[in-house]
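Subgroup meeting minutes
Present: P.N., E.W., G.H.
Scribe: E.W.

1. P.N. recapped why we're keeping a running log of single-chain structure predictions: easier to compare across weeks, and new members can see raw inputs and outputs side by side.
2. G.H. added today's entry (173 aa).
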Amino acid sequence: MDFRRNPFARAGLQLLGLAAALLLAQLAFTSTARAQQTTPPPRRPSGPAAGPVIKLPPGSGASLEQTQSSPKEQNERATSGPKRWEYCAIVNFNYRQKNFPSNSYTPSAVIRFFPDTIEEVEGGTEEGALANAFTRLGDDGWELTGITTNFSLTDGNGKTSSVYYFKRPKRQE
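Output recorded in log:
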């Protein structure tokens, strides 16, 4: 059969070619769509964005300063041993009568330095005494590490008391 002379055969051949092209296009499209569905989306970068170098003050515990210090300094730090701490706590309040004939009492926060030293810090109110005690301890290098609060319900009366715990690096003796 001569396809060049038969117009129906030529049209059929063209249709067959068109159908084959459409079939290939459809296969390519579905395989691309399946590939896009099965592959997870690209991961976005996580973590801190790159930015300017931040220099921390000496003694702030930055790991960069350890790599920049001399080997002698690193050796001294390693041989100094573990850091030692001392502790204290604001344990309660005492009330002292200012003048004997008067009925006014002055509260003072009781600070216990472990193991056995006690000091009192006065204030006009409990809050004032607590604020004065916090200020004194902060000025001396103490850092608040924890708070415990006790709730007591006796005879239908509710009462709370808190203990404030502090620490600081042990000083050389």
